[in-house]
Specification:
The chain is α+β, with helices and mostly antiparallel strands. It has a single domain, classed as Ybab, Chain: A. Helices cover 62% and strands 15% of the residues. Strands 1-2-3 form a three-stranded antiparallel sheet. Helix 1 packs antiparallel against helix 3 and helix 3 runs antiparallel to helix 4.
Length: 117
């Protein structure tokens, strides 16, 4: 009986490991976007919190106030990374609840999120 329970748990752990690989691949291809300054600066990141692209409106490049442009970039980057983290949490919770057969491990979702940072 104990042997069967351990075997079942090991199968769940193997499935969890497979799902982690799928989650990481999926998060790399999930994109979020954030804009600041009325669209002067736009940042695109993936859900693994990696910056993919920074776009500047032509008006942004003609700004004489460099500090303002720097602040717009920082704000857009921070917003994009925040959205990326939220998107990652949504996907991980959806997959961990459904695909892992209800496997509940303390800190499981949080450990995945740390791996994506």
């Amino acid at each position: 009986m104990i042997k069967a329970a351990i075997s079942k748990m090991m199968k769940q752990m193997e499935k969890a490991q497979e799902e982690l690989v799928k989650i990481n691949d999926q998060l790399e291809n999930e994109y979020v976007e954030a804009s600041t300054g009325g669209g002067l600066v736009t940042v695109i990141a993936n859900a693994r919190k990696q910056l993919v692209k920074i776009k500047f409106d032509s008006e942004a490049l003609s700004l004489e106030d460099v500090e303002m442009l720097e602040e717009l970039v920082l704000e857009a980057v921070n917003q994009a990374l925040e959205k990326a983290g939220e998107r990652a949490r949504e996907e991980i919770q959806k997959i961990s609840g459904d695909a892992l057969g209800g496997l509940k491990l303390p800190g499981f979702i949080e450990s995945i999120l740390r791996e994506t940072e």
